[in-house]
Amino acid sequence: MSDASKGRHRPKIIAIANQKGGVGKTTTAINLGTALAAVEKRVLLIDLDPQGNASTGLGIDADKREISTYDLLLADANIEDVVCETQVPGLFIAPATTDLSSADVELAANESRATRLRNIVRAGVLDPFDLDYVLIDCPPSLNLLTVNAMVASDSVLVPLQAEFFALEGLSQLMLSIREVRQTANRDLRIEGVVLTMFDTRNNLSRQVELDVRENLGDLVYQTIVPRNVRLSEAPSFAMPALLYDHTSKGSIAYQKLAAEMLRRHGEKSAKVLIDE
């Protein structure tokens, strides 16, 4: 951690959410975080998924997660005791355990059930980390953990698998985002939609892309994440795909996604790992 300094900017907080499982949400969280760190951004990934796949994928063994995001939300743990360094310089993680499985029920009895995470990440306790980005990997459901993430965030990034019912599931998520905006976080916006697990050989993928772009326009990132073996293999080696094979099509896509995100945030001179 670097020393606190005067006039530090507040990090951009982005929830990565989709109530449907298996759409590349955690893969996006891990590899987008890694790509941002690779261009010298300081990033914290908060794992709010009880499966803890983001924690595993960044090399944090289960037996090393003595204090987790469950303790952060429900046991008033100090965030500095929760956050771990990863094998990626500049990328930190607040790991998750299966204890989070009961968090939804336990939070329901708490008066501040929807604002627990916001009260933590916006209270200045993250200042010593000197972060540029906080990415929150949400569970694959629209429960209180996801609501906490949205209430705490500036925006929501939606990984969307190029499949037949993609837009149908997206509409429910958009309604949830609108409800959070109306009730608890009026500044919440949609960061964007990124098409994932895209099969260029499949006409359906192309049709889904056309439909999504027609309906959502500029909200949809130009970068598309392909279906890629290296992206699937990397978690079994407990590392991001960008470390496992930075030349793979999946890794290159996440490098491009990070560059596109930085440009959207006005950082046109940001370093990039690849020539575009």
- Listing every helix as H and every strand as E from the N terminus to the C terminus, the arrangement reads EHEHHHEEHHEHEHEHHHH
Write down the CATH topology of the domain at 12-156 and 228-258.
Answer: Rossmann fold
- Determine the mean pLDDT: 90
Percentage of residues assigned to helices: 25-40%
Q: Tell me the strand order in the biggest sheet.
A: 3-4-2-5-1-6-7
Account of the protein in words:
The structure is a single chain. By secondary structure, the chain is of the alpha/beta class. The chain has a domain at 12-156 and 228-258: P-loop containing nucleotide triphosphate hydrolases (Rossmann fold, 3-Layer(aba) Sandwich), CATH 3.40.50.300. Helices cover 39% and strands 13% of the residues. It is built from twelve helices and seven strands. The chain has helices at 25-38, 53-57, 69-74, 79-82, 103-108, 116-121, 144-152, 166-183, 203-216, 229-233, 241-244, 249-264; strands spanning 12-16, 43-47, 84-85, 91-94, 133-137, 155-161, 189-196. It has a seven-stranded mixed β-sheet, with helices on both faces. α1 (25-38) packs across α12. The longest helix has 18 residues, at 166-183. The chain is globular.
